[in-house]
Design brief:
Chain B: This is Iron complex transport system ATP-binding protein. Chain B: Pfam families: ABC_tran. The complex is a heterodimer of chains A (about 325) and B (about 240). Chain A has 14 helices and no strands. Chain A has about 325 residues and is an all-alpha fold. The longest helix of chain A has about 35 residues. The radius of gyration of chain A is 20 Å and the shape is globular. With about 240 residues, chain B is an alpha/beta fold. Chain B has one domain: P-loop containing nucleotide triphosphate hydrolases (Rossmann fold, 3-Layer(aba) Sandwich), CATH 3.40.50.300. Chain B is about 35% helix and about 25% strand. Chain B is built from 9 helices and 12 strands. The chains are: A mainly alpha (about 325), B alpha/beta (about 240). Chains A and B meet through helix 9 and helix 10 of A and helix 2 and strand 6 of B.
Chain lengths: ~325, ~240
């Protein structure tokens, strides 16, 4: 399954490099960019399309994997990565940079860096509140911290210094991978590797948890330590992707559902395929965004939500049928 | 040496001064009213509860035994089991190999054959009936080839047929020199199948011994507050509640 999805992801990336307002020989442009030439093709590929494609892939992979991990940990197919409070924390961090001009030394990457810090703070507060947690407490604590950070974010929006700053922030929050550079990847890639590594190290716990905490613990797996590592990993993934690309909804929730049947519903085997499928879906959605008629751009996060929400309603319907 | 020896086990208000032992090849029944501490006792031995007192596994303090080693030797079958995901039966049984870090196909098939679930290996566990699932959960435990099985009311919600099948499987495990601690409500089944019984009442041991020693009308009156007639003279013990 993984090789097929990897191939599909590479194909999607190639298509993504081809799509744009100007017709350009992709491989030639890529080669020229690698050699440091400043031809038009090199600039379009290296400065615009490559960062955009790579960001779409990494953001999608981070969201897909964090969704698979959290659903496995909470044993709940409707668990969303936003549950940890990391998304809202990241949004608040980035918004603060827009307003107060924090971290000037970080340049264009400042909102992303602040977002990562915001996600980290929100996550730490959530873990502190949840205590030596049962899964229900993680959801409650995540909801409480999300609400708090959401309220603070609303306050920041409320006191926007000028309409321009407000619209800039709102558009950023809608979620997009356009107009970002490779320096954003420098933040996202380590977060993907570390967060993904933390989650991957706990895949046996995710499998054991299929039959509940007691069974997992009786099989020698440490629930308290393992669940913290998974939540930390997921927060890194979600926080970094929100910090770089804003809110791209429903990917973390839906991708695991699409992939689960392909891995016989095993939560341990779901992680990598969910990351690959997330990367493919976000990149495809971004290709659709770029293919829209010129004018005001439809934001990537808006598109994923428009597609994701009906699918989510369908999922809830399916779940409901199980209980009736 | 005893396989398991429990000495002065204490768990907040749930267990007080519980001492018992489990020998190789023994089927030990834990009986008592609801809330007597049966599940708590099993959870302590499975390493799921922080206890005070001593639990020894072949002379070694349980908390000092490496968790993976403990999990390889002691398997826990909880009271209620449900898979969060629509796993295939073969994958559920494979879970039993987690303490060993492998998915030995031969042992998974052997456990499935023992429990009679071999024909459902490729079926989804949520498509099976409650009784069929009970055998799959047991197959999961057997696939880990544990020395000791701790089964917490495995007969609850099973019909007569499956109650017998599960008890036969546990007995078979003890014949192959494994041991079982079984918490059970049905006193007739307990008397018939178990080598020894532990009668718990409000977290304390009321009596330990052979079924005949433990299940006296007086003990049943004191612990369950019912009058009962006990007859061990026939082929099968008979405990009948009078009022």
């Amino acid at each position: 399954m993984t090789p097929a999805l990897t191939l599909l992801m590479l194909l999607t990336a190639l298509v993504s490099l081809h799509v744009g307002s100007t017709d350009i020989a992709v491989l030639e442009g890529l080669w020229q960019w690698l050699q440091g030439a400043d031809s038009a093709a090199a600039i379009v590929i290296g400065d615009i399309r490559l960062p955009r494609t790579l960001l779409a892939l990494t953001v999608g992979a981070a969201l897909g994997m964090s969704g698979a991990a959290l659903q496995g940990l909470l044993r709940n197919p409707l668990a969303d990565p936003g549950l940890t409070g990391a998304s809202q924390g990241a949004a608040l961090g980035a918004a603060s940079v827009f307003y107060f001009g924090l971290l000037p030394a970080a340049g264009a990457a400042a909102p992303a860096l602040a977002g990562l810090i915001g996600a980290g703070v929100a996550m730490s507060l959530m873990l502190l509140l949840a205590g030596p947690s049962r899964q229900a407490m993680v959801i409650m604590a995540g909801l409480a911290i999300s609400t708090l950070t959401g309220a603070l974010l609303a306050a920041v929006l409320n006191f926007a210094p000028n309409p321009f700053a407000l619209s800039e922030l709102v558009f950023w929050l809608l979620g997009s991978v356009s107009e970002r550079g490779l320096d954003h990847l420098v933040i996202l890639l380590p977060a993907l590797l570390i967060g993904g590594g933390l989650i991957w190290s706990q895949r046996r716990l995710l499998l054991g948890l299929s039959l509940g905490e007691q069974v997992a613990q009786s099989m020698g797996l440490s629930y308290t330590r393992g669940s913290r590592l998974i939540i930390l990993g997921a927060a890194l993934l979600v926080g970094a992707s929100v910090a770089v690309a804003g809110a791209i909804g429903f990917v973390g929730l839906l991708v695991p559902h699409l992939v689960r049947p392909l891995v016989r519903n095993r939560p341990d085997r779901l992680l990598i395929p969910a990351a690959l499928a997330g990367a493919i879906l976000v990149c495809l959605a971004d290709i659709v965004v770029r293919g829209m008629p010129p004018g005001r751009e439809l934001k990537l996060g808006v598109l994923t939500s428009l597609i994701g929400a009906p699918l989510f309603i369908w999922l809830v319907w399916q779940e409901r049928k199980k209980w009736i | 040496m005893d396989l398991i020896s429990v000495d002065q086990l204490q768990l907040d208000t749930r267990l007080a001064g519980v001492s018992l032992s489990l020998a190789s090849g023994e089927l030990l029944g834990v009986i008592g009213p609801n809330g007597a501490g049966k599940s708590s006792l099993l959870e302590c031995i499975a390493g799921l509860q922080p206890y005070s007192g001593r639990i020894e596994l072949e002379g070694e303090e349980l908390s000092r035994v490496e968790t993976s080693k403990r999990a390889q030797r002691i398997a826990f079958l909880p009271q209620r089991c449900q898979s969060a995901w629509a796993l295939k039966v073969v994958d559920v049984i494979a879970l039993g190999r987690l303490p060993w870090g492998d998915e030995d196909a031969g042992l998974i098939e052997k456990a499935a054959r023992h429990t009679g679930v071999i024909e459902w290996l490729d079926s989804r566990v949520d498509h099976l009936s409650g009784g069929e699932q009970a055998r799959v959960w047991l197959a999961r435990v057997l696939a880990g080839q544990p020395d000791i099985i701790l089964a917490d009311e495995p007969l609850a919600s099973l019909d007569l047929h499956y109650q017998q099948r599960v008890l036969e499987l546990l007995r078979k495990h003890t014949r192959e020199l494994g041991s079982v601690i079984l918490s059970i409500h049905d006193l007739n089944l307990a008397a018939h199948w178990c080598d020894r019984l532990v009668l718990l009442d409000a977290g304390r041991i009321h009596a330990v011994g052979t079924p005949q020693q433990v299940l006296t009308p007086e003990a049943i009156r004191q612990v369950y507050q019912v009058e009962a007639e006990v007859d061990f003279s026939g082929e099968q013990p008979l405990i009948r509640v009078l009022r």
